[in-house]
Design brief:
mainly alpha, 2 helices
Length: about 70
């Protein structure tokens, strides 16, 4: 029997990671080609700082999921 929830979670994770990698590789690469290494460094810095709120949201949702699973086990 297949666990479809695990498969959906795995697929979503792969899509998000692939999208972020594509954004960084293609985005920073184009900035580098068009504007040079200094602008690419600033683009990398700005994209990295822009990911902080998303990572915080992901972390808090993960903590909430972990707490609810622990509460349901008891």
């Amino acid at each position: 029997m297949r666990d479809l929830r695990k498969y959906a979670r795995q697929t979503n994770t792969r899509l998000i990671v692939g999208g972020v990698l594509l954004l960084f590789i293609v985005g920073i690469g184009l900035i580098y080609l068009l504007y040079g290494p200094a602008a690419a460094g600033m683009g990398f810095l700005c994209m990295g700082v822009g990911l902080i709120p998303l990572l915080l949201i992901f972390f808090f949702l993960w903590v909430i999921e972990w707490v609810t699973k622990k509460a349901n086990d008891n």
